Batch of 2 targets.
Target 1
Amino acid sequence: MKQVLFVGVWLYIIIQSGCTGFNSKTVIEKNEEEIPPAIRNQFYSDPSNPIIDAKVELGRYLFYDKRLSVNNTKSCASCHDPRFSFTDTYRRSVGAYGDLTLFNSPPLINLVFNRYFTYADSSLHTPEQQINNPMFADKPVELGWKNNEIELLKRLSADSFYQLLFSKAFPGAKQSELFTVKHVQYSITSFIKTIVSFNSPYDDYVYRGKKTALDSGQISGMRLFQSARLKCNQCHSGVNFNEPAFKSSPHFNTGFFSDTLIHKGLASKTGNSNDIGKYKTPTLRNLAFTSPYFHDGSVESLQEVVYMFEKGNVSDQQNKHPFIQGFKLSLQERSDLIRFLLCLTDSTILYRTEYQNPWKIK
Ligand code: HEC
Ligand code: HEC
């Protein structure tokens, strides 16, 4: 009887540490102070990859480590740099072999609130599903893991510091199964899922009830953003301003880009001609740090973006969304609208220590 109890207790401990690990928390629990209560139930997460402190810690080291690219030239942070809200200021990013990526690098913030990932693929719903792209993509190469996994894992396992971090992050794993692609992916995605950004004047105004957080011009800008005339919030809705307010996927053809010879948008994935020229609606948070804009990074200033929505008539593509019709703004209105967009800026994201490069802080 005693023996049964003994085995039972051990089984309990093993199951606990193997499946959920110690200190397992949701991103919400980890950021109790940061995430406004009103939206705490609106997050998505992959239950097979619970947030564990040791895994987040390991992921943070990996995210900033150039040994993660085939020729030691690029890390995730090369294209997702905290100084620019985890973007890189380039129109299109540069992969390990110097190739340009297809698209502009998006900010990695509030990812657990996103239902879709990347500009032109409606099948990716979590960071865990997306991370194969930067690691294994070969057209163009980003980090260059394809056919090089064994070499890259060997490189990491040769470092005694990583041996320590991996064994802390995956306490249930056998020594021989510690360094796997899956463990690398689960650690990095755990880290990026913890990156949240809700310290903007807009968040203070809407979620924290600080009525002085926005001035009257910015409030007029918000009203314009929400108006039936401009319809911005019809497509830029939800926690991150990247989901439609109506029932639809967030992929739309704005009609701003007619060059489907370069890229067909969502149709390149679905093969459906109705999807030609559709791109995912991007977040409008932290625009102050994420220029240039749009999937191809072709537009540098917010003024220019707003002019494009005002004109609204660049091409007559069949898939162009009817909400992009153009409108006329006065000087004052244009300024209010842009000042409102900039209220969605959280500058604490640039220097919050728990997101910074741990190799430098050490
Ligand atoms: C060479 C530059 C580059 C590197 C290196 C890179 N990324 Fe990206 N990342 C991009 C670009 C460009 C996109 C947009 C891709 C698209 O839309 O198809 C992107 C998109 C993403 C997205 C989707 C975000 C969203 O809201 O849609 C995530 C998540 C992401 N990257 C995480 C990572 C992680 C984790 C790593 C390291 C393992 C990494 N990236 C390495 C350039 C890069
Ligand atoms: C039909 C849906 C729709 C409407 C309405 C709409 N947008 Fe967008 N918006 C998009 C999509 C889709 C993109 C990305 C297009 C691309 O990358 O090619 C985008 C991109 C943007 C960007 C660039 C962000 C970045 O990081 O690249 C800004 C800024 C923006 N929209 C602001 C607005 C404003 C302001 C309004 C109202 C005047 C508005 N949008 C109305 C769908 C919409």
Target 2
Amino acid sequence: MKTQFGILIILIISQFGFGCGSKDNSAGDSSSGGGIIKTVPVKDLGIGPISKVELGDAIDESMAAKGKELFDLKCTSCHKTDKRFVGPSLAGVTERREPEWIMNMILNPEQMVAENETAKQLMMEYTAPMANQNLTEEEARSVLEYFRTLPADQNQ
Ligand code: HEC
């Protein structure tokens, strides 16, 4: 959080510091004066069928219960919710990843580990590929809802 705040401040300063003398600002958000190109922070949504997930403010308990059932059946051979196993512990996963990324990882792991930077790093760290369990989008959504009920990762 601190770093992000720091970057924000730098962005603001560079905007005002170098932007003043520029004649043509028609390029708007993609450039500022002095030839400085700003980086727009982009959320990592992953690669796959999911481009937008709406999360309710409150957890949908019945959806989460269905997700837990699926998780116990199809995911616990490799994942625990409190410690590292074949794959990462899934405690706190909804804090470290976007919901879209999580669903794309569940539905499209082959392409994710081949093309998504975060998934590639995980693959290097865990040296085993995340398995496609052929969940439907609705099932993956319910597993995501279950993940929202997990406590934060103690090790972070
Ligand atoms: C055969 C073992 C295996 C199974 C089964 C499996 N996974 Fe994974 N999973 C992994 C591995 C290994 C990783 C680490 C990334 C990689 O190496 O591809 C991973 C990564 C993940 C991640 C990313 C975690 C993070 O910290 O970002 C999520 C989310 C995930 N799995 C969810 C699931 C769900 C949900 C299921 C069941 C539907 C499941 N996995 C089944 C092995 C598995």
